[in-house]
Design goal:
By secondary structure, this protein is an alpha+beta fold. Helices cover about 30% and strands about 35% of the residues. The chain has a two-stranded antiparallel ribbon.
């Protein structure tokens, strides 16, 4: 079997993926003392 050629992502696909990840709400835990608060950044 011939080796599969993995095409390099184009600039458009890279920008689409970056935009997709940016638009996703990220949850960042913030620790204050002994209490951990989950902050959702949109």
């Amino acid at each position: 079997m011939p080796a599969q050629v993995i095409p390099k992502p184009t600039i458009r696909e890279i920008k689409k993926n970056i935009w997709f990840f940016v638009k996703l709400p990220t949850i960042r835990p913030i620790t204050k003392g002994n209490t951990t608060h989950a902050v959702v950044l949109t």
